[in-house]
Amino acid sequence: MRVFLNSAARLIALGWMPMVAFLGVFFTASPASAQFSAAYELIKAVEEQDYAELRTQMLKCRCPNVRTIDDVPVLVIAARNADKQIVEYLLESGANPNAADRTSKMTPLMEFARR
After folding, report:
1. At what angle do helices 51-61 and 38-47 cross, to 10 degrees?
2. Do residue 51 and residue 85 come from a single domain?
3. Alpha-carbon distance 54 to 44, whole Å?
4. Which of 6, 42, 64, 81 has its CB 3.0 to 4.6 Å from that of 57, i.e. a possible disulfide?
5. 7-45 confidence digits (pLDDT tens)
6. Do 68 and 88 reside in the same domain of the chain?
7. CA distance 107 to 113
8. What is the pTM of this model?
């Protein structure tokens, strides 16, 4: 009990603000690891039509069927962008050509036909 009182007295003497700041460093929310994952970067590369970055990220994750948080396959995104080079690369990498956007139900072929 005496040790606790001494510790409490020290905390009061030091002030509670520095302690809160100190603990805040360790207990703050860290960024989501998905933001920095190869799959996230692959989605970003397809959205930005960055072929070189797409190839780099595909070597890291080998995930041609990855979907966005909205459940849209990257192949559908590439088809919406009418990016033939990225579509071909994703198909060669094993992307499912029948993978549909779960909201709109559009497949990559349907997206190309709309263009």
Report:
1. 160
2. yes
3. 8
4. 42
5. 655 655 556 555 555 555 444 444 454 456 999 999 999
6. yes
7. 10
8. 0.68
